[in-house]
Amino acid sequence: xxxxxxxxxxxxxxxxxxxxxxxxxxxxxxxxxxxxxxxxxxxxxxxxxxxxxxxxxxxxxxxxxxxxxxxxxxxxxxxxxxxxxxxxxxxxxxxxxxxxxxxxxxxxxxxxxxxxxxxxxxxxxxxxxxxxxxxxxxxxxxxxxxxxxxxxxxxxxxxxxxxxxxxxxxxxxxxxxxxxxxxxxxxxxxxxxxxxxxxxxxxxxxxxxxxxxxxxxxxxxxxxxxxxxxxxxxxxxxxxxxxxxxxxxxxxxxxxxxxxxxxxxxxxxxxxxxxxxxxxxxxxxxxxxxxxxxxxxxxxxxxxxxxxxxxxxxxxxxxxxxxxxxxxxxxxxxxxxxxxxxxxxxxxxxxxxxxxxxxxxxxxxxxxxxxxxxx
Length: 375
What we know:
The protein is mainly alpha-helical and about 375 residues long. Helices cover about 80% and strands about 0% of the residues.
């Protein structure tokens, strides 16, 4: 399997995320929706990850047709998202995004399993493939931030539709054989889930993404309220993901030197510091820049470590289920709870308190990782 076919899918998938995560909240705000309503909408996108990856992961592990599922999910997500052009009624958009994200969220976990199957024993090369997703995010968030200033935010659904189509097209060039033939393990999944390190890791992943909830839901709105331009906000998002790319490029040296547990704990502690900086110093531009650079650890380092641990703990026919659980528990349940609490505390408790809660959640995750993940 050529390197660029795998990398190309990551590029377009995360380019679409670079358009959706930073700017969809701003688009909803431009339609006149409240913070609580925006929080619910973003939580729904996350919440479908609780169900969707597990359903499709079960199908993939029993059929071996991972890329067929990726292609089907990509096509149906395009068809579902077309509903945003029919009406801007809030509950209509809620329904559209629920159906869209059910299929969109089905694709990435199965593609992750395909990538690891292709890499075989060279799992350390994952970051060099995945970093192109970060590049796609940077390109999208930077260009869109410059183009959608002011009333032009209304063009965002058209841009997203174009990107979702490219995801589906890029999936067509990855043949089914890339998924490989998984070895059969006779160890039941329930036995795997009873291991303390597995349960500890899944709890850590849930809390980490819960802590990211206010960031993914309201960061752009937060920065805009403090007077930053949309183009500069786009730069901040891009800077964070650029730092993430740099850490991906160094993972093959960091893991052997420091070990997965130590890197995971450090990433969680840095995440806690990052949310405190954003909470208390939003008007200090150099600190906002520094906070975005810390994305290298709070997401890049964390994700690279977590996904390697998932691949280690869930072997054989459980690979698809492992990736699905990681996606559903962290980005799904954790992200949904994070978006929900942020939506309700944003106006009632204030923006500072919302990010402080995120910092405390990340700190708890660091403690659990230290106690439960073996060295």
